[in-house]
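Anyone have tokens for S-protein homolog? Sequence:
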Amino acid sequence: MLTVHCKSKDDNMGTHWVGPKSEYEWRFRPSIFGNTLFWCHVWKGDDSQIVYDAYYAGDDKLYDRVYMDNSYWVVKDDGLYLRQFWKGIDVFFHH
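Reply: yep, here.
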């Protein structure tokens, strides 16, 4: 079971619990100024956690992997991955 909490400066998506083979989805509209930043804090148990930028229009590494305004993050046993839709692969992002 994962605990996930995502937010931006203006929006707090709340805390959610995500079980194996489950998904958690949220939507937003990016700022017209191109400065939208969402970050997430993910916990697995008491010892394993990560905080990462889930979306930032100013970061080409993140923005170039967005497909039709969607970012798809995958948590695996060895770390966090960002899906590249057009290649059909998950790219390692953080452990």
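The first strand starts at residue 2 and ends at 8.
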